[in-house]
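Predict the structure of cysteine--tRNA ligase.
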Amino acid sequence: MEKEPAMEKPQLQIYNTMTKQKEVFVPKVPGKVGMYVCGVTAYDLSHIGHARAYVAFDILYRYLNYLGYEVTYVRNFTDVDDKIIRRANELKEDPISLSGRYCKEFFKDMTDLQCSPPTHEPRVSDHMNQIIDMISKIIDNGCAYDVNGDVFFSVDKSPNYGRLSGRQLSDNRAGERVDIDPRKRNPADFALWKSAKPGEPFWKSPWGDGRPGWHIECSAMSAHYLGHSFDIHGGGMDLIFPHHENEIAQSCAACEESNVSCWIHNGFVNANNEKMSKSLGNFFTIRQITSLYHPLALRIFLMRTHYRSPVNYSTKDLEVASQRLFYMYQTLHDCEVALSPFREASLEVKIPAGVQELIKKFHSKFETSMSDDLHTNTVMDDFLELLKSINSNLSKFKKQQQKPMICALTLLEKEVKDVMSIMGLLSSSTLSEVLQQLKDKALTRSGLTEEQVMQRIEERTIARKNKDYATSDRIREELEAVGLSLLDEPSGTTWIPKSNTG
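Done. Here is the predicted structure for cysteine--tRNA ligase.
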């Protein structure tokens, strides 16, 4: 088969929260990227908001790798925090043990969503020396003060405080997860070190026994793994203030050369156009969703919205994502079946010009969309059209198995798999296994068993033989209503999850 010449990859443009505009991404060290993403506070199962963030940054990580960068990706675990301590007390469990347990659950969720493992996944409890050293530097530089074992950062010592969030210092709330402490010199001052309280985990420090505040953890760990100056710092929009604003202030106070080139933030997740929260009863964990939908369907659902826009969680959109995933894998499966007899053949023939142009155009649009601030939503729409083209070519191939068409389908199949790999949609399971997994999830959502569906199919077959088309149509409609579509073929009737490729 003829090969197309390799095309130069486009430059990535990404929106920088600090400058409030899209910028051409230029790493500090040519060919290498340092990226830090704020991880979970591990005290419960992760929710869809976490999936939103870590799928978005996984796609960035994968695309940077595709562009040829050597990426050092750091995503932390907060395993020392007020929320963890409260939950541990409720369960009468050691806080570090509790957090470790939920870290393992987080790993499972990320594996299910096919989020690539970061280069480093540090935990706060393993980095106390780095945290204490950084606090000491901030105090030595006159930017923090000790009050009876509690150390506070002085925001008045940070001349650029508020630059990331756009807040005026006078407008800022206290920058931590507790009530304002009257001992603070400025209400916006925030804790770097908290003195030990009975029943809480603690570590020894120059200011007495205690534990770190929320923000200092990420400053210390990012500096430890990436240095004080690195390329990308990311997280959800809810972290812009106070967390990331305070990170910048304390990092610069510890080291004047501290600098992050690009701050990237993903949008929120709403449920039925309302803010998602436990109190409203519209709060969903990743595990709850993946008990009903394939994890890759959730990934597609998230990718169909641009990472900076809010995602509206709805079962309708999850159904569409699930249908897209089934169509994707069914197309590849059909292609595999059609091409399998010809895999070993050496086909030195000219590829149809129309197919060459189709692949070239699609891949160009793919790179353009991804390099323009990661427009995965556009990619997913274009990808659907490519899958439709494969199915059209498969129909032609079944009628006449010409050698150029074998080459065309082989190239189309490769392009689909290459893009699926970049987007984190290519499963390590076989095509048949993924299709079966999708059928199993569809059965769960329908409330029916395989045996019950096959019984309904048998009843319909009998009705059709008896020309009882009213009963036949009713059974089909009843199954359609619960998300199952029937396929009438010469060999008999089978079922698949309800399909909609629009």
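The chain has 15 helices and 15 strands.
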